[in-house]
Amino acid sequence: MRLTLRLVGGAAAEEGAAGGVPGSPPAGVLATASIDHFDRRDREWWPFVRLPALHLGGQAAHALVEGARQLLAGSSPGFAWRSGEGGALALQLSAAAGTPGVLVEVGVDLGPWLADVAGGDPGSEACLFRFAATRADLVRFADALAAESGPGTGA
Q1: Could you give the domains of the chain?
Q2: Strand 78-82 vs strand 126-133: parallel, antiparallel, or unpaired?
Q3: How much is the pTM?
Q4: What is the model's pLDDT at position 151?
Q5: Backbone angles phi, psi at 100, to 5 degrees
Q6: Long-range contacts made by residues 116-121, C-beta under 8 angstroms, separation at least 24?
Q7: Whole-number Å distance between alpha carbons of 83 and 1
Q8: How many other C-beta atoms lie within 10 A of the C-beta of residue 58?
């Protein structure tokens, strides 16, 4: 399994919102995410769960890249990250004891989207995915995210 996170673009700052001054930098970033599985028959990655638009806070991508870098540098045994106030996507990375890999735990709350589709109140329909990744996989993930998010991520 793997987590794919793609930054789509900056969310427009709204007038009257905190920090939402017209002409100011984007208040956040729009992203999409999926949990993919590898099909050994055709040797392709396929989405298992694909989330619609995620609204990340202004520094969310930077915090994710920085947390991954600290874990890879050995200055942190792991870290936890949430996609924003609603926390529709949560990620926890930790050094896997006794292995050169990383334990990845991805939490996905489908409640807001299911409520939107059904026209009801959002509940808490959470899914947890746990899998191992290599340090090289984490380096590629952090580098791609830093490249997509541009300046301010230490890329």
Answers
A1: 2-149 (2.30.31)
A2: unpaired
A3: 0.76
A4: 60
A5: -80, 5
A6: none
A7: 20
A8: 17
